[in-house]
Every structure is written in structure tokens, then in C-alpha cells.
Amino acid sequence: MPFSQFSLSQKLVAALPDTFRSATEIQTLTIPAILNQQDVLAIAKTGSGKTLAYGLPLLEQLLAVSSHSQALILVPTRELASQVNNTLSLVTQHTKLTSISIFGGVDKEQQKAALAKQPSVIVATPGRLLELLTENAPMASNINKLVLDEADRLLEMGFWTDVQRIIEMLPAKRQTLMFSATFPKLLESKANELLNSPALIEAKKTEDAEPSINETLYLVNKGNKTKALIDQISRHNWRQVLVFIGAKDNADALCKKLNKAGLNTAALHGNKDQAEREATLEQFKQQQINVLIATDLLARGIHVEQLPVVINFELPSSAETYVHRIGRTARAGQKGIAVSLVCHGETEYLTAIRKVTQRELALQELDGFPVTDQPSSGESKRAPRDKQANRRTNKKKSIKQFQGRTKRS
Ligand code: ADP
Ligand code: MG
């Protein structure tokens, strides 16, 4: 999103380097929330542009208020304090706003004098700032914006006690922002203490133009999956579809059914020899085969340019595999389609996938396929046909569950 689209003053935006054509993902997500005066918890990897993600909206707010209002940015190292101060000073150069950095190893009296001038922004390491504030507490009275930058490192490096003592000196009524590359459990509890109904914002792992994938998840009866799959492919007239299936034993059976339904389908799995696999893959690439059914293991070697559609016939037990599977679509910046057929028995996997992807991934009903299965898939209402079958089902289920747990931990 171009910077001009945000409610930011032209003065600030104009000061950005010409090479910054548009805001990064984390900037796009946090700038409006911070301008909205909300507390924010933002997680995005290193190099994603977090400094301006909080810097720009903070400066904007400081420009807007007439009363003395100051922002304090706490960072874990001296180098970062200089770096952040340089970045922000660049943006404030044509405004009335001022920014200073405070860190150890430099003359204290000079820093006190600089603080006494009430700069708009103070970028500081906790140790030295705490020393200065302890000697002159009133200097903190106008600080009503606080940023904990690189919060994970502030915590790791043992600065949290200092951070907390500084916070105790600040006005209680303030906006608090926490930015971090990672979000360990311990930081979670600190965030809970410090932030007031924060907007929780997480940028996706990779900043490099991640292609957008249109994910649709249909809840269907387990016994209807094959029909639903055929319906989806025929209805949309998809020409090149990669279907993921969990077990290779089922791949051939499914392949047969699809061919019977008139869909040009092949299966790729470990029971086929190398030559056969390569021939199948080539046919798929040439679109002589329209539907390819593959297990996860085999799918790793598949490189097809811009695969438009990926279908999960079953959800994988590991959330990472889900991400990997749907990543097969929407290559080269194209919008891709990922459809998953989910039955009640897979809701545990879905929960894990939602957690990892941080996406809602709402289940929808598929037209013409009403769901009649009951959620408690473990206990069938029908009496088991025989004890042997019953035992088989139970065994299968417990292994599945076990895999689900280990993969996620
Ligand atoms: P982080 O704090 O997430 O590690 P930084 O704020 O230090 O990231 O920014 C990383 C680099 O990206 C810096 O060199 C910065 O100048 C550059 N940068 C920040 N925002 C943009 C943008 N919108 N467009 C291009 N480059 C940007
Ligand atoms: Mg940073």
C-alpha cells in the first residue's frame, strides 16, 4: 500500500526515501491501528520495516497534538538506539519534531540537558535511561507513548526489570506498543501485563511478495469426499489440479473413481517406479493429464509453474505440511486457489493449521453436499460390524492423534 493512502501528513511521507514506494506488510497493518490510539502487539521478522511501522504513526500523532507529548522507544542495544534515532530524525527533518538517543558510555550531563529540552522522541537503552530518570523523575511526566522495540531481545538480555521500573515512572494513561521478531511464552505474559486490549498484528513469515492464495475449506461428510472432489473439479472446469491425499493406498482407488467420472487423472506415489513417476509428471505438465493425485512425499519433487489449483482431499496431520501444500499454487505472484475437503474427524488438524497460519479458515458448506455426519466421529452410532473392524478403526485413530500432537509440539 502506498504511504499516501494512510492518514499521514505529507511532511512525513515526503521525507521518506524515494525507494520506499509502498509500505511493508507490517507497516500496512500497524499504522492505522496506532493512529487509532490503540495499544499494539506486533510480530514481524527482522528486516520487515518495524521501525517505521511504529515510527510514522507515532510521529504523526506527536505532530497533531499541541500539548507537550513525548514518545519513548526502548531498545536493547546502543547500536539500535542510534539506528532508530537516525531513521526517525530523517523523517522529522522538515517538522518541528525532535528526536534524541540515550545510551550508556556517553556523557550523562549532556544527555540530561538533551532530555530537559523535552524532545518529541527519546530512543533509549533501558539502563542509562533509568539512571537519568532516577535522578530526575519529572522528566518522564510527558511520556504518554511507549514503544518496546525488539521486545524479545529486551527480555532475553535481562533488561525487563529496568524496563518495568521505567514504566512505573511514566504516566499510567498512555499508548503502549510492543514490537518483536519472535513471541516466546514469557513475552506473552509480559504483553498481557503491559498492554491494554491490544491489536494483535502478525506479519507473515516472508516479506518477499508472498503470493495470495484463496483458501476455501468445505465441511463435508467423510463418505462424500470423492463426489465432492469430482463436483469441484467439474464445476469449475479446472484444467490442472493437484490433489493431496494422506495415504498412498487410497491414491489409486481415488484415481480410478475420478477417471470413471471422466476426469483425466493419474496418481503419483511411492509404489510407482521412477520412470513411471517422471512420465506421469511430464504428462501433467503438458496437461495431457488434468488431475494429479499425490502423497506429500512425492509432491516434494513436483515443480509445475503456476499451478492454479491445489485440493486437499484430506487435511494433513501437520500444519506445516498444509502450508507447504497450498504453497504449490499461486507461484510467481499469481493468485492461486486452495480447496480443502474437511470432515468432522479432521477438526483437530484444522485447529492446528489455524494456529500456525493465524488465519480464520472458516468451514463452509458445499452446495449439494449437506453435512449429516455428527461431530463426535469417534463413536459411531451404528454398531460396529465386527470386533476386528472396530479394533482397526481405534488403532488408526490413536496413531493419527499421536502424530498430530508430536508434529505440533
Ligand atoms: P526491522 O526493525 O523489522 O528489522 P527495519 O525497520 O530496521 O526493520 O527496516 C529494515 C530495512 O528496510 C531498513 O533498511 C529500512 O530502511 C527498509 N525499509 C523500511 N520500510 C521500507 C519500505 N516501506 N520500503 C522499502 N524499504 C523499507
Ligand atoms: Mg527493528
From TrEMBL:
Give me the stretches of Basic and acidic residues compositional bias. 379-389
UniProtKB keywords: ATP-binding, Helicase, Hydrolase, Nucleotide-binding
Q: What class does this enzyme belong to in the EC scheme?
A: hydrolase
Q: What is its EC number?
A: 3.6.4.-
Q: Which residues form the Helicase ATP-binding domain?
A: 31-201
Region of interest: Disordered: 367-409
GO molecular function terms attached to this record: ATP binding; hydrolase activity; nucleic acid binding; RNA helicase activity
Q: Under what name is this protein listed?
A: DEAD/DEAH box helicase
Output the lineage of the source organism.
Answer: Bacteria, Pseudomonadati, Pseudomonadota, Gammaproteobacteria, Vibrionales
